[in-house]
UniProtKB/TrEMBL annotation:
Domain of life: Eukaryota
Protein name: N-acetylglucosamine-induced protein 1
GO CC, any one term: cytoplasm
InterPro entries, alphabetized: DUF3605
GO biological process: N-acetylglucosamine metabolic process
First and last residue of the signal peptide: none
Length: 176
């Protein structure tokens, strides 16, 4: 049986490891995740740097996807974190960021206090060229959304661009 006729929870699994029933961590998924998991890894397109830049420039962050077998491991990992820690966020706050709850910003404005920001490598990067480093910037403050669009306000986007330029642009160049 080729991967195209398998249930999504068996795709990319060695025959000897294919579960007969859907594991709980893969149950009740959205259509996007099911479509990704149904894709053989060999058919997955790894994004190049120009493609990544185009998605970011056009604010198409929703188009980023994990390699199907990596998504499977990611979903299992998150399921385990929820079981063991109550939520993924509880784990991230206590174990990765080492921030206590409730999280409170020291600064009165975004990016004012260094302790209000933490930069970590993404433990579960998307399907991008292996030479691309995917960093995640965690903040103790809220960045304002535009209620009409659900996207960041122009002011919030400007604050982010300023932080990114100061923190990374001077080291690696703005084009990176």
């Amino acid at each position: 049986m080729d991967d195209s006729t398998l249930p999504y929870w068996q795709t990319n699994m060695p025959i000897s490891q294919r579960p007969q029933t859907c594991p709980p961590y893969l149950a009740n998924l959205n259509a996007k995740d099911i479509a990704i998991l149904s894709t053989p890894d060999s058919s997955y397109h790894i994004l190049t740097w120009p493609e990544v830049r185009a998605l970011i420039t056009t604010n198409r962050l929703d188009a980023f996807q994990r390699i199907p077998s990596q998504l499977r491991r990611y979903l299992h990992y998150n399921w385990t974190l929820k079981r063991d820690h109550g939520s993924v966020m509880a784990f991230v706050l206590s174990q990765r960021l080492h921030w206590s709850s409730p999280v409170r910003a020291a600064g009165s404005r975004p990016f004012e206090s260094e302790g209000d920001v933490r930069v970590l490598c993404n433990d579960w990067p998307y399907g991008i060229d292996a030479r691309i480093v995917h960093l995640v910037v965690w903040t103790k403050f809220v960045l304002e959304d535009d209620e009409a669009t659900g996207d960041l306000t122009d002011e919030a986007r400007g604050l982010i661009e300023g932080f990114v330029g100061r923190t990374f642009g001077e080291r690696v160049g703005r084009e990176n």
